[in-house]
Fold this sequence. Notes:
8-stranded mixed beta sheet; BirA Bifunctional Protein, domain 2
Amino acid sequence: xxxxxxxxxxxxxxxxxxxNRGADAEVVDSVLELDRERRELLTAVENxxxxxxxxxxxxxxxxxxxxxxxxxxxxxxxxxxxxxALDQDVHDVESxxxxxxxxxxxxxxxxxxxxxxxxxxxVIRSHGEPKIFxxxxxGHIELGESLExxxxxxxxxxTGAGFPxxxxxxxxxxxxxxxxxxxxxVDQHGYTEILPPTLVNRKSMIxxxxxxxxxxxxxxxxxxxxxxxxxxxxxxxxxxxxxxxDKPLPVLLxxxxxxxxxxxxxxxxxxxGMIRVHQFDKVEMVKFVEPTTSYDExxxxxxxxxxxxxxxxxxxxxxxxxxxxxxxxxAKCYDLELWAPGQNDWLEVSSCSNFxxxxxxxxxxxxxxxxxxTQFVHTLxxxxxxxxxxxxxxxxxxxQADGSVILPDAIVxxxxxxxxxxxxx
Length: 425
């Protein structure tokens, strides 16, 4: 969440940041008005409590002197009722204030590209060239079905649209990619692997910014008030919720999890196949870093995600997202997109974001600086990477004229030496 003190001291800066990302800047005035009301109420109730303490001592002295205290005690009871009412008013105003602040997105970072929407994102570099075929390349749905490694009709029968089913070497490919990425991030990039729950509580979802903004996009178990995670970012970031991190920064964590998203409003868009699904696998990277290093750490995080794609020999590009296209909690974000010839399009497989202290304030994650003072950490996260579109790109780029698919060399050891997936005879 945004720092209320910064909103008081630099309201114009906050308004400008919100306008740059297309958000409602007038909410700043509403927040400041509630904040003024809260502080006035606090002053009033503290004054009454101070007066009550003074009179309590006076009553004690009157009793010792044998004086009648009935009128003073009656006044004290009335004062107590006023204090109780004011305390309730403070609670109500604070609740409204906190609820309002939780709906306000992060402001763009100082180096974030300013723009209205995704059309103003900028390609900052690319790796490799889109593959040229001497035959008409197939899409992953046709490839997956002809190779008998995907079965979308049975997945729909089991659950419904948007839930993929991998079979045989399709399942093996997915498992190999997960293991390859985890090994890379742990052994070469310095992350510690964890295996978190796939259900989290409301506080965890609020801590990373999914709630209340994106509630309609999430799967919820209302009887337990638990949420199926939309990304491993949620449980990993909440690893240190309401804690002071007791080890040197940066702390780097990675995890594989299944992820679940309703994607409300996306019905009808890429609903066949693996492009847009409600359940998918992903390897995630999360960093807890000192504020002064967070933008350097963002570049390293992006490099870790790029390393995955480079080792798989895939053509990709890096987009710097503009202020109107970054996520609710992000201050700056890069996207990685893979070229998929069967789609004749670029597919996003990773977003790497710096949230600055936005998530840390919501989740109360702190560290001690070199002077021993408690500060909020900066949090970062990036997909390292998401599986469905990665599988799409591998199949579509590796396809051969005879219908087989050549697999990237980097995952052959994880496939027990299998170098290609061949059509069934």
